[in-house]
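fold-stage: in
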Amino acid sequence: MSAAKVKMRGKKMRNQPVSVQYPSSSAQNGGDTPNPAGSFASARAAEVQAMLTAVTKTTGSCHVYGALPKHMRRRSMSHNTKRLPRRLRDVANRMREKSLQAGSKKKKEQPKSKSRKARRRHGNLLLEFNRRQRKNMWLETHIWHAKRFHMVKKWGYCLGDRPTYKCYRACYRAMSSHCLLQDLSYYCCIELQGEEDKLLACLSLLTSKETGPTFAAALSLSGRRQGSVVLYRAGQYPSQPLGPVTFLWRPRMQGTTHRQLWIWAHPTLKKDLLPELQTVCQCCEAVVPPVVPVVIPAGVVLTPEPESEKTPEAQQVTGTKRKHSGIYSTGELPPGTVLGLTVDDPRVTLPTKKVKALPCVKQAQEVDEEKRKELMLQGVPEHCCQSYLWEQSVRDNVTDNKISEQQLNRMKSEVLVPGSRLSPIPLQGRVPILLVHQPGKQVGHEMSSWGAGWDLLLPKGWGMAFWVPLVYRGVRIGGLNMTLKHSQNKGVSHFPHDYPDCPAGVRFQEEQESELLDKFKRRPPAKRTNYIKHGCLAPFRCPWEQLAEEWELITREAESQTTTEADTVMEEKMTSRRDITVTKPQSHVTVLRNRKSLRLLSGWCKPTTSKGQRRCRVGEVPPLDRSAATSFLATHVMSLVWVRLSLLSKGKPEFHAMVCVPTAEDLQLLKKGSSSTGPQEPPHKDHFKSRIKRKKKGNKKTSTPSLLPKTDSNESDLSSTSEPNPTTSKDPKSSSQSTSDLIFGLWPDPLPSVTSHCSRVTLGWVTQGDFSLSAGCGEALGFVSVAGLLNTFVNQPMEHRGTLLLRNPTSLHYRFAKINIEV
């Protein structure tokens, strides 16, 4: 039979009687004398009852016409019941009356959907757009991005993640030689106003001079440079960091000490930063929405001021812009340079088709070389940093009086020569902006100043007015993915990915772990990577707390035994701690941001590639020995340090790759030359695979528990005792709960020792990794334990100091890498 007939037969036979088994009286009476007549009558009664139940229920269609054979059915019976046999007319009449009564009831009228023409009207479109961004806000460039990008909902915004077309290398070329444009208007801008001394006194509680320049830096305080700093909770340095922010002071006004400060923070940092600022500054929340930051990593064509402005300040600003035209690269300018301008509406000079903007070499050669060097060394004068963008009334006026697209098109249509520039430019077409220079790559000795660019700060509502003209000038557009790649190529940490000690970073790692775990569970078990066999304890997260605590314990145990060699001590301690979990109380791990300590670590890591430092500084840095390492770890034993790893041979570092310590035999492989690929990790045994199988078999046999043999339970007990189980517990409830939480290919919680689980000792993990097009090799960024790193440096020979191993979570192959600590 066909599938349709089988389905129809099953539908008809679902209510038919089946074999009815009536329990015997001996089973009910507990073994008394059986009564054959009574049991026979009871069994027959059960069968009769099942048959009556099947007869009363309809098997197929409940319509009365289904009772007739097919050759007697007529289409006219539906409206003329006299066509039916007399025995079925009454039932058909009752069903007909019931259907008429049901049709007479007034049904709820469904709202008629509007036509597409009505839905596309401007007012209806705005209502629909406002409804769709109730939960996640839209940027001004959202419609443009939604047509060309894969959109993601993050941090309360709807953002473009990556383009729908392949453009990875094209975006890299744009970052290197032309221009890559990104919309960063989802960043929160917080404004603080007050007396300068009071503001500095309050903000000094959130920062520390040991980490670098703060809000009170001279260049930043004057308003000529933009600054960046890592904020902490009030008086809690070096613990409890909040996250990094960038800030900009308004240049001083003559005759007043009242200052204005803008602080830009990531949206995940806002809910932690605002309460702290309100407590320290004793102020209310002040978020400034009208400033739209846009990243432009290339030269910007600036519109000159009108010739009617002949004041001395205007002439100095014009001279400064002429000096800017003589700069060959934005990397030549001092980092954080601020330039305030008032430009024309770029829609007025919008080209008819896309044209790639190129620098004018002739204009650059005409600039005096001395003035150019003066600009590179001293930067922009303070009065050139002033802008009307600081005034809220001016911002509101510019936003409210913006020329609409309809008015602008009508003005262009009235021009005598089509395509020519509007003259004179209307007053509504003057826009105050701020240009803030962003430095490029400042670490390492290759590709210096790579990725330098500008932040373009605009009034609210002018985002698309500048966006489309920039696109018509040949710029590339990047999303969140390219933002991460830009910071990775520059060798800097990216927030909140690379801040494990901040609350926002902890929340991000938890969300990321749940997303990766859900993606892992969606794959069939046979297609999943068995991370247990690869020796990877936590492929979706990095247990930084456990890593720092284990290295602290190892350091203390090594200090107590000074008679033995350091290598033997470390190997013995690792072997003894293979199946031991950390039992000491939890303590918060911190990231080392002290500049003095970082310079010391960078000097011990030979050779150093930090910018502005010689490759070997024997006289400046004290020699590294056991006593120097002990004194350094007295204050930084529970700290992590940000490092950059460069592969010495082929390979591509991946996300959450393990950073390990090479053995003496591994270092001998380096003498073979650059062709040496590295050692291999022996495959691990999956002890949880058999338990998962027994669990599945047990679930199948739960319906018939009496059929389970007694020997099966004994075998399971023996096998469970023979296999090492780090999750065993004396409580049977906890053991059953841990068995139910097992996932094929993943270690359950709590994890065993993360440092000694593999054949090579683990120092840390990678948070960003890929093949770097700027360096021409695989590069990785991540964190390692300070205690483990110093222990490795002390035990390594001088010629191999700073050489570590890198292994991806899905591979058993180790790769040699060179570690660099950048300051």
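fold-stage: in (second)
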Amino acid sequence: MVMSSLKLQDLIEEIRGAKTQAQEREVIQKECAHIRASFRDGDPLHRHRQLAKLLYVHMLGYPAHFGQMECLKLIASPRFIDKRVGYLGAMLLLDERQDAHLLITNSIKNDLSQGIQAVQGLALCTLSTMGSAEMCRDLATEVEKLLLERSPYLRKKAVLTAVHMIRKVPELSDTFLPVCAKLLHERHHGVLLGTITLITELCERSPAALKHFRKVVPQLVQILRTLVSTTGYSAEHSISGVSDPFLQVQILRLLRILGRNHEESSESMNDLLAQVATNTDTSRNAGSAVLFETVLTIVDIRSAAGLRVLAVNILGRFLLNSDKNIRYVALTSLLRLVQSDHSAVQRHRPTVVECLREPDASLSRRALELSLALVNSSNVRAMTQELQGFLETCPLDLRADCASGILLAAERFAPTKRWHIDTILRVLTMAGTHVRDDAVANLTQLIGGAQELHAYSVRRLYSALAQDISQQPLVQVAAWCIGEYGDLLLEGSCEETEPLQVEEEEVLALLERVLQSHMSLPATRGYALTALMKLSTRLRGDNNRIRQVVSIYGSCLDVELQQRAVEYNTLFRKYDHMRAAILEKMPLVERGGPQADEEVKESQEATRLLEPAPVPTEPQASKLLDLLDLLDGPSEDSQQPAPVDPSAEGTLIHLLDLPCAPLAPAPIPNLKVFEREGLQLNLSFVRPPGTPTLLVITVTATNASEGDVTHFICQAAVPKSFQLQLQAPSGDTVPAQGGLPVTQVLRVLNPNKAPLRLKLRLTYNHYGQSVQEVFEVNNLPVETWQ
């Protein structure tokens, strides 16, 4: 016996009554079989009922593609009940990926031309939901006519359909430009809101539309002023005492687009924005939303300085709000404003620091980023103290960012070297395993350059190492410092620290403990072994204990450590007379960089120009070659050499007898290829003389902004006729305010000497936002490939 088909309500009850998923699938499979049979029989009276049940099945996640053609039949039906279900099915079952959606274009066109509002509304809803680019082009004229209909119901739906059309086909913007100006006079909430949205889409996608609608800025200002000063266009759209907040927000977004980089439009908005900012109630979310959009508009346009300070103060009040979402939005916005309005944001520093203690991880992360951006030379002591307090209790996923941020801030704004050293030591003691890779090198360089603090530093580090050997960067720096300045540690004559009596045996025992600890990394053991070796020349006692420890590690499994131990043993056995000279204190190594290289180069050139030119007494080959090198690149104010005296034949003969040295190739000029918000990318080129087909490109990234550029990745691609090798970059963080740049070397092999084209992709985080830029470099100097 064949079961009869269920009604929609009965089907819903039976599906909900299924106790297991298997029972639910069984009910749906049986009903889908009845629906298929009904479609095959072609029952026109009950087709809409069958399709309604199929749509419910589709909403539960089961396949319903076999009902697509039935949707087309119902849309073409003259009955409204069929059209309603047919259009609903088209919106759910059809999209641009299926060719069947093009078959309803004529049906929609016919329905839009009818005079029945309900049918026209269904057609407009379907077109705005699943209309493809082809359908939008074909039906744009019909939608434009409906924009001028008397019925607000149709005008509202036509405006929303026009928004969809502009998003799909931006070329249709000219079709809707004249109509939008007329619709701005509407008093109906839905029509006016849709019109503002449509104008926003047009301005974002068409420069011509942006220029056209800047003329209506006074009209938009008047509409918004009316909303702020009165009850609005309709009382039913007021929320929590705020008059039509949705319309206010949309108008503010449009004003932000129209006033961006336009002085005249921005000037006409200033008074209105000040009125909105001062009169809006922020006790409810609706008022906060309007106020936040006002702040964004003030920041983006060319507003007055006082208005920008008002915007920053509003964000500062948001930080005191009990709603976490509002506080997060305020922190994110202030982070964007730090670079342009640093002094105004600085006034809210205590409130920002309070946000560090938020239990919400996203809030504390944003507060940390903003706190680091607020550090400057005047508040570095207080801010560092607050950040160190946060470092002790912050979650593990924030500890690395906090520690690295403190180290960068101390490096840029340290008032004294001693304070700088103390700050780094505290960070290494609290979160040594989370600091950046260059922290050890930076601290050793800092200590090496502060000769007056050598005794102080070695005592502080020895005390910290005696208490904890688990923080590997701290152990490495302490081992290096003890090895270099161990004699100062034993003297006990430092006035800046508490009296500390250290015996030689205690120092050696501590280093042996580091070597034997299971927590020590291979690199840390290398530091400790080298420190022991250096102490053999700085301690007054017998070196037998040191020799025994070094000989033990001659058979270590770690190859690097074994090699060091074998070399040190050889130094003890065969070259003991040279050991003291070889293990002298390390000289100060200056930090390199493009700026330092330029300063050294300029000083060398100045010294060379100031030195008097020596008068050669003999025509020796070395002196003449030096003279030729000097004359290879004369300066602009250099004089022409005097004519050679023909009587000096002997000198000429000797000069001509010299082998002719090849002239050095002219240097290839550097090229700036990228600059955005303070981040700059420069390319420098070198072609090795031995391999003319090889080009070595050095990519240098510098950051002049107030915020660090983190997670920096530079990727490159070349045409197939080239060969490209990317070497590892020097780091992934570009410090702010002209800190140490990040460099990366690209080696390009050009066997055919073809014109070089380079494609670069940059990925990084700046001011809390992820940025990705892809661009081509086609203007490389000719010298790079010829």
